Amino acid sequence: MKRNKKIGPITLFYSSRMAPGKGFDLLLTAFSKLKHKENFHLILGGTGPEKNAIKQMISDFGLDSYVEMPGWVTRERLLEMHKEVDIFVQAHWRTDNTSISLSYAMAFGLPSILPGGGGLEWVAKKSALYFKDEDTDDLAAKIEQLGNSADLRAELSRNCYKRLAEDEMNAEWQVKRWDKAMKDILANLFDNLF
């Protein structure tokens, strides 16, 4: 709650390998459409084969004064960044996958903006705003909506911790659940064979 800013700039954060399909291009396109860019700061962490193309997009959109690219940072610095930023944004992901980056963000109570449907929405549930996948206008609208509301950021942040406390997010509980299910299946299989 102390970290939740009442005045900007609101810091958006995404970090991943800069490779095709990770959504850096979608995030930059959406950011370029913000009506009040001066209220935001965007940190794009990581590096990879698309790094130069991403830098060029930043320049082409005239976003140099709004976007920071620290590259790869130590694990310690990455964790510190999660304490300093305001919103996690993952602009694209395969719908059948979840994301360790999202899990980190949730562990730090970061409200998120994610593509709707699929694994990311299943993980985050009520701790994020969702936009129509690949719709940069909708993504820009969600950035402005969450950036402009300290109350909404606080609510989504609280929901991170509620979600992480649920049994289906508890790895220990899940291992026990699947272990029991597998034993039951094997027991039924052997009972039916013999």
**Shape verdict:** elongated
How do the helices and strands follow one another from N- to C-terminus? Answer: EHEHEHEHEHEHHH
Tell me roughly what share of residues is in helical segments: 40-55%
Task: Count helical runs.
Answer: 8
Strand content: 5-15%
Q: Helix/strand-derived class?
A: alpha/beta
Calculate Rg over CA atoms: 19 Å
Profile the largest sheet: 6 strands, parallel
Mean pLDDT: 90
- Stretches with pLDDT under 50, minimum 5 residues: none
Spatially, the strands of the biggest sheet line up as 3-2-1-4-5-6
The beta-strand count equals: 6
Q: Kindly, what is the distance between the CA atoms of the first and last residues, rounded to a whole number of angstroms?
A: 61 Å
